[in-house]
């Protein structure tokens, strides 16, 4: 434990065992985290003890804490209320923070010969008609998309009548999602009649519109206008189908919210479905770049979300356990002015809706990560290992020939690609002979020592990696694991090969993780393992080429170049020498009993 952690822990152990709020600050005195506690001493001291049980998010926060303040309260509930207020005022970096981007939204009906229906965020002085305002952008988008599709209205950039018959109709016409006034087959009068029906649909719903369209369809059929009757029939079918689809997202509970989370490494997302009158009335998505442990994240999300909302429903469904659920329910009830219950649906229609909400959260998170450029193989690898997506990875491999020219290579992958300027080479110095575990222990010891010399630098040994991979299984990991911790607390895993020297699994200190189910992570680890092996063996060959006589034999006391040559001439290979008895070794020309004993002991670890 470093001196700062010891100092903070000593201070935290003097705190009272009473409720309150604690405020973490960095070196610049900026507030970076605010939390509440039932017993301040117990809660705050947990941060500054062993870091092994903490999530990556908490470890990073603790690394930046320079001091903390606290405010005592009469109860845990008062602490929660104060925490909410302080978070809203200070917006600390390590608390879950949500942006309230709610504004007013409108449905715009343009004023032109062939009018259009579209979404709008403001009312302009352009002669158009505006329906609204609506608080929910989701409701506006859903309404516009539905009516445009049901009435086959154009969505292209063409202007009518200017562009009629000036080009082929687009794909939407061929898949019957546009009436295509561009073809000239739809008169302006007929277009406007259809458009008026679409506007009535927006203003009054599907029932009346569908009935009127049926009357028009029968009239057209009676008048033997079969093409027009067919178009009306298709429009009625589209409206009825849309109505059926909307019934899918309905709830037997009139007013409630559903909240679900998705997670990929350290990244996360929350999705909120809001139901009013049994219908889905709004949908919101929130991206969290450091989500931490889910029970704590759910608590923080609900707290932040309803701090920004005036409407709190009587029921809130969430997708898993949350911290201090009873306390959270009390706070929500006080804020709403009536009872609010939190549920974890397990079966039935509510569980089905929760699955839908969770799938939407996962899809939203995946889209956000793709758009932000987060490397998908790194996401998969982080999820597999239970760590944030590791942007900066160091990998190590040992290379020697029967213990001779014992060296190691370190390669770096940044954002999934080799960073060759950061590669390093090591010559094993602490012992002779072949011991891959001891070699790996020495290399990591030296690497950590260099980190402490150059700590804080943004490149080279001064940069702490997000992940360390060792070529080998749990033996290599176990040999190095005692070195990891304190200011060099880095996730450590091994890369396991199969019998054909292909990457097979990830080794932990106590077992293995299957890689094949995460195909992109599997491919990335395979590349890293091949690259570190290539680099280490290349350095080993370079060392061998620089010697006048390349053999581990000459490193043995009493074995010079002549005796080494004699042994190789007699036994042909190093492997055969290793398997020979002392008597067989002593029988080679130029050897004696002492030299034979030295060779035998060297290869048998004595």
Strand-helix topology:
Elements: H1 3-12, E1 20-25, E2 31-37, H2 40-47, H3 56-63, E3 67-72, H4 76-90, E4 105-109, E5 117-120, E6 129-134, H5 137-150, H6 171-174, H7 188-204, H8 206-222, H9 226-248, E7 256-264, E8 267-276, E9 279-288, H10 294-307, E10 315-318, H11 325-336, E11 341-343, H12 348-371, H13 376-385, E12 392-401, E13 404-414, E14 417-418, E15 424-427, H14 436-454, E16 467-471, H15 474-480, E17 492-497, E18 503-507, E19 512-514, H16 519-545, H17 561-571, H18 574-579, H19 582-586, H20 593-603
Helix pairs in contact: 1-2, 4-11, 5-7, 5-9, 7-8, 8-9, 13-16, 14-15
Structure notes:
There is one protein chain. It is built from 20 helices and 19 strands. The model has no long low-confidence stretch (mean pLDDT 84). The protein has five domains: 88 residues, GIY-YIG endonuclease (3-Layer(aba) Sandwich); 140 residues, no CATH class; 116 residues, Nucleotidyltransferase, domain 5; 162 residues, Nucleotidyltransferase, domain 5 (2-Layer Sandwich), CATH 3.30.420.340; 52 residues, 5' to 3' exonuclease, C-terminal subdomain (DNA polymerase, domain 1, Orthogonal Bundle), CATH 1.10.150.20. It is 43% helix and 19% strand. α5 packs antiparallel against α9 and α14 crosses α15. It is elongated, with a radius of gyration of 35 Å. The two termini are 38 Å apart. By secondary structure, it is of the alpha+beta class.
């Amino acid at each position: 434990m470093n001196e700062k952690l010891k100092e903070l822990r000593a201070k935290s152990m003097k705190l009272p065992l009473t409720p309150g709020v604690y405020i973490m600050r960095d070196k610049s005195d900026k507030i970076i985290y605010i939390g509440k506690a039932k017993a301040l001493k117990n809660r705050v001291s947990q941060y500054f003890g062993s870091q092994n049980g903490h999530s990556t998010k908490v470890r990073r926060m603790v690394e930046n804490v320079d001091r903390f303040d606290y405010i005592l309260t009469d109860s845990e509930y008062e602490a929660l209320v104060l925490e909410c207020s302080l978070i809203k005022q200070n917006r600390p970096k390590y608390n879950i923070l949500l942006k309230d981007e709610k504004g007013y939204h409108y449905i715009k009906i343009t004023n032109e010969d062939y009018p259009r229906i579209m979404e709008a965020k403001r009312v302009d002085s352009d002669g158009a008609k505006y329906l609204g305002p609506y608080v929910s952008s989701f409701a506006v988008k859903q309404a516009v998309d539905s009516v445009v599709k049901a009435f086959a209205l154009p969505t292209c950039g063409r202007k009518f009548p200017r562009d009629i018959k000036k080009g082929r109709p687009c794909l939407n016409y061929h898949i019957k999602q546009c009436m295509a006034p561009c073809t000239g087959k739809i008169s302006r009068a007929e277009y406007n009649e259809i458009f008026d029906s679409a506007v009535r649909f927006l203003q009054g719903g599907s029932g009346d519109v569908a009935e009127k369209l049926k009357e028009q369809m029968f009239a057209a059929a009676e008048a033997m206008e079969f093409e027009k009757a067919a178009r009306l029939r298709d429009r009625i079918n589209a409206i009825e189908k849309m109505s059926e689809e909307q019934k899918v997202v309905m709830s037997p509970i009139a007013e409630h919210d559903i909240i679900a989370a998705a997670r990929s490494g350290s990244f996360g997302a929350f999705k909120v479905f809001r139901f009013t009158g049994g219908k889905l009335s709004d949908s919101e998505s929130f991206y969290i770049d450091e989500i931490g442990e889910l029970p704590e994240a759910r608590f923080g999300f609900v707290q932040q979300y309803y701090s920004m909302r005036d409407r709190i429903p009587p029921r809130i469904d969430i997708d898993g356990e949350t911290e201090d659920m009873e306390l959270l329910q009390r706070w929500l009830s006080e804020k709403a002015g009536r009872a609010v219950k939190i549920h974890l649906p397990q079966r039935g229609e509510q569980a089905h809706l929760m699955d839908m909400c969770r799938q939407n959260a996962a899809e939203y998170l995946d889209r956000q990560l793709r758009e932000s450029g987060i490397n998908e193989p790194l996401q998969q690898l982080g999820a597999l290992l239970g760590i944030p997506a590791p942007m900066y990875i160091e990998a190590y491999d040992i290379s020697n020939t029967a213990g001779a020219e014992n060296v190691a290579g370190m390669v770096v992958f940044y954002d999934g690609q080799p960073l060759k300027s950061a590669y390093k080479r090591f010559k094993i110095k602490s012992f002779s002979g072949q011991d891959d575990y001891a070699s790996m222990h020495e290399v990591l010891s030296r690497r950590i020592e260099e980190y402490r010399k150059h700590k804080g630098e943004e490149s080279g040994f001064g940069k702490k990696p997000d992940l360390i991979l060792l070529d080998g299984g749990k033996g290599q990991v176990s040999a190095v694991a005692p070195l990891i911790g304190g200011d060099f607390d880095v996730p450590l895993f091994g890369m396991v090969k199969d019998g054909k020297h292909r990457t097979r699994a990830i080794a932990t200190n106590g077992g293995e993780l299957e890689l094949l189910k995460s195909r992109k992570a599997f491919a990335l680890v395979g590349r890293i393992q091949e690259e570190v092996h290539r680099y280490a063996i290349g350095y080993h060959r370079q060392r061998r080429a620089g010697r006048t006589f390349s053999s581990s034999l000459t490193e043995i006391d009493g074995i010079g170049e002549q005796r080494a040559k004699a042994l190789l001439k007699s036994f042909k290979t190093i492997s055969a020498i290793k398997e020979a008895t002392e008597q067989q070794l002593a029988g080679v020309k130029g050897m004696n009993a002492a030299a034979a004993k030295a060779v035998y002991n060297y290869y048998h670890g004595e």
